[in-house]
C-alpha cells in the first residue's frame, strides 16, 4: 500500500505518521510517530508512506509546526 500525506502551513510543517491497530490511540504516546521524508510540491509538503499488511490497520498522518498540529487517518480493512 502506498499513501501520500500532504500539508501546507507557515512555518512549513513537518510530516509524521504511524501505522496502528484499529483501536489504538497514537496521540496517547508521542514517541510512536515516525518522521516522513518530504518534498515540496506546489507549496505543499508531501511524503509517501509505503507498507504491507495482512490485517486491518489505521494509518495516521500528522502535520506539525510551531503554530500547532493537525492529523488525518485512513483505515485499511483486511477481510
From TrEMBL:
InterPro entries, per database record: Ig-like_fold
The name this protein goes by in its record: Ig-like domain-containing protein
Organism: Ancylostoma duodenale
Organism lineage: Eukaryota, Metazoa, Ecdysozoa, Nematoda, Chromadorea
Amino acid at each position: 500500500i502506498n499513501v501520500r500525506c500532504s500539508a501546507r502551513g507557515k512555518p512549513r510543517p513537518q510530516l509524521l505518521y504511524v501505522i496502528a491497530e484499529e483501536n489504538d490511540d497514537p496521540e496517547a504516546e508521542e514517541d510512536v510517530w515516525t518522521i516522513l521524508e518530504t518534498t515540496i510540491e506546489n507549496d505543499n509538503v508531501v511524503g509517501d508512506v509505503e507498507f504491507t499488511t495482512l490485517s486491518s490497520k489505521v494509518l495516521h498522518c500528522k502535520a506539525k509546526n510551531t503554530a500547532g498540529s493537525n492529523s488525518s487517518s485512513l483505515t485499511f480493512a483486511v477481510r
